[in-house]
From TrEMBL:
<feature type="binding site">
    <location>
        <position position="173"/>
    </location>
    <ligand>
        <name>L-ornithine</name>
    </ligand>
</feature>
<feature type="binding site">
    <location>
        <begin position="241"/>
        <end position="242"/>
    </location>
    <ligand>
        <name>L-ornithine</name>
    </ligand>
</feature>
<feature type="binding site">
    <location>
        <begin position="276"/>
        <end position="277"/>
    </location>
    <ligand>
        <name>carbamoyl phosphate</name>
    </ligand>
</feature>
<dbReference type="InterPro" id="IPR006131">
    <property type="entry name" value="Asp_carbamoyltransf_Asp/Orn-bd"/>
</dbReference>
<feature type="binding site">
    <location>
        <position position="304"/>
    </location>
    <ligand>
        <name>carbamoyl phosphate</name>
    </ligand>
</feature>
<dbReference type="GO" id="GO:0016597">
    <property type="term" value="F:amino acid binding"/>
</dbReference>
<feature type="domain" description="Aspartate/ornithine carbamoyltransferase Asp/Orn-binding">
    <location>
        <begin position="162"/>
        <end position="314"/>
    </location>
</feature>
<comment type="pathway">
    <text>Amino-acid biosynthesis; L-arginine biosynthesis; L-arginine from L-ornithine and carbamoyl phosphate: step 1/3.</text>
</comment>
<dbReference type="InterPro" id="IPR006132">
    <property type="entry name" value="Asp/Orn_carbamoyltranf_P-bd"/>
</dbReference>
<dbReference type="InterPro" id="IPR002292">
    <property type="entry name" value="Orn/put_carbamltrans"/>
</dbReference>
<dbReference type="InterPro" id="IPR036901">
    <property type="entry name" value="Asp/Orn_carbamoylTrfase_sf"/>
</dbReference>
<keyword id="KW-0963">Cytoplasm</keyword>
<dbReference type="GO" id="GO:0005737">
    <property type="term" value="C:cytoplasm"/>
</dbReference>
<feature type="binding site">
    <location>
        <position position="237"/>
    </location>
    <ligand>
        <name>L-ornithine</name>
    </ligand>
</feature>
<feature type="binding site">
    <location>
        <begin position="64"/>
        <end position="67"/>
    </location>
    <ligand>
        <name>carbamoyl phosphate</name>
    </ligand>
</feature>
<keyword id="KW-0808">Transferase</keyword>
<dbReference type="Pfam" id="PF02729">
    <property type="entry name" value="OTCace_N"/>
</dbReference>
Length: 319
C-alpha cells in the first residue's frame, strides 16, 4: 500500500505552505489523496517513523485549539518532535527581527509552523528560513483549514472537481483560501458578503484566472440566497476575526448573512455545512444548523490532522 502511494506521488520535499497559490492542482490533489490514505491507515510503520529524529517548531502569535493540537499530534504521529514556542515568552515578543528568528530556528529544526496576525510576517519568515514554513493562519490565508475542508467535501459530496461550494459571511482569510483551493480543484465557488466586507480584489482576480484553467468558477456576490442556491457545501466563519472582537458595527452588517435553516433550505437537500470552528452559535450560524444533520464540522476538524500529516510527510520525509 505504501509503495503504491509513493509510486504515484509528486515530489514535494522542502516545500513551504504559506499560500496555496504556490501549489499546483496536481500537488494539492496528491496531498489530499495521501491524507485520505493516511486516515484509513493510521498505523503503518513506514509512516509512523517517517520523520524520526526531526523536530518541527510551532510558533503562535494568536490563540488556537485545533491547529495547535492537530499539528502537534501530526508531528508526533510521524515520529518527529514538536517544539512549541510561546510568542510572548520568546524573543519575538520583545521585538527580535523575524529575519533573525528565521535564520536561527533554521539551524535547529526541520520546519516551522507559524500562526501570525500579519501574512507578510509569515512571508518574511519563509524568505529568510532555509527550511519549510507552514502557515497556521494569517489575516490573509488559512491554507491547512481549506485542505481539511476539501478532504471533507471529497468524503461527503464524493468529488471535488465540479462541486458547488457557497461561502457566506465575512470576506476574510477563509473566503480567500476557499477561492484559491476551489479554483485549483475545478470547483464552483460562490462567495456572498456585504460589499464592505468583500474578499481582496487581487485574490478574487487570481482565483478567477486559475479557475479558467481547471473548469471551475469563482463568483462574488452580495445575496446569500443566490450564493447558496443548489450548493453541495455551505460554509461560513466567525463574523469578526481574532483581534477585532469588539467590532459590533461589522456584526450588525453581517447579520443577514447568518447560516440558518431557511438559508440551508436553498442548498441541495444533501448539502453539507462546514465551519472551521470555533463557532459563535446564534451569530454566523444557528445552533440548529451547527448541530443538525447536515453539519460535518467535527469531521472537518478531524481532517486537519490528516492533511497536516500528509503535508509534513510529503515535504519533510526522505523516502
Ligand atoms: N480552525 C482553527 O484554525 O481553529 P483554531 O483557531 O482552534 O486553531
Amino acid at each position: 500500500m505504501v509503495e503504491r502511494l509513493l509510486a504515484n506521488e509528486v515530489r514535494l520535499q522542502g516545500r513551504s505552505v504559506v499560500s496555496l497559490k504556490d501549489w499546483s492542482p496536481t500537488e494539492i490533489k496528491q496531498v489530499l489523496m495521501t491524507a485520505k490514505w493516511m486516515k484509513a491507515n493510521p498505523k503503518v510503520a513506514e509512516i509512523q517513523y517517517a520523520l524520526k529524529g526531526k523536530s518541527v517548531a510551532m510558533i503562535f502569535e494568536l490563540p488556537s485549539t485545533r491547529t495547535r493540537v492537530s499539528f502537534q499530534v501530526a508531528i508526533q504521529s510521524l515520529g518527529a518532535a514538536p517544539v512549541i514556542l510561546d510568542w510572548q515568552d520568546s524573543q519575538l515578543g520583545r521585538g527580535e527581527p523575524i529575519e533573525d528568528t528565521a535564520r536561527v530556528l533554521s539551524r535547529y529544526v526541520e520546519a516551522l509552523v507559524v500562526r501570525a496576525r500579519n501574512h507578510q510576517m509569515v512571508q518574511t519568515l519563509q524568505k529568510w528560513a532555509t527550511i519549510p514554513v507552514f502557515n497556521a493562519l494569517t489575516d490573509a490565508a488559512h491554507p491547512f483549514q481549506v485542505l481539511a475542508d476539501a478532504l471533507t467535501i471529497w468524503e461527503h459530496v464524493g468529488y471535488l472537481s465540479g462541486a458547488k461550494l457557497a461561502y457566506v459571511g465575512d470576506g476574510n482569510n477563509m473566503a480567500n483560501s476557499y477561492m484559491i483551493i476551489g479554483a485549483k480543484l475545478g470547483m464552483h465557488v460562490r462567495v456572498a458578503c456585504p460589499v464592505e466586507w468583500s474578499p481582496a480584489a487581487d485574490v478574487v482576480a487570481y482565483a478567477q484566472q486559475e479557475a479558467e484553467m481547471t473548469g471551475g468558477s469563482i463568483q462574488v456576490m452580495t445575496d446569500p440566497e443566490q450564493a447558496v442556491f443548489g450548493a453541495e457545501a455551505v460554509a461560513t466563519d466567525v463574523f469578526v476575526s481574532m483581534g477585532n472582537e469588539d467590532s459590533d458595527a461589522k456584526r450588525s452588517q453581517l447579520a443577514p448573512y447568518q447560516v440558518n435553516a431557511q438559508l440551508m433550505a436553498k442548498a441541495k437537500p444533501t448539502a453539507i455545512f462546514l465551519h472551521c470552528l470555533p463557532a459563535h452559535r446564534g451569530e454566523e450560524v444557528t445552533e440548529e444548523v451547527l448541530e443538525g444533520r447536515q453539519s460535518v464540522v467535527f469531521d472537518e476538524a478531524e481532517n486537519r490532522l490528516h492533511v497536516q500529516k500528509s503535508v509534513l510527510y510529503h515535504t519533510l520525509s526522505e523516502f
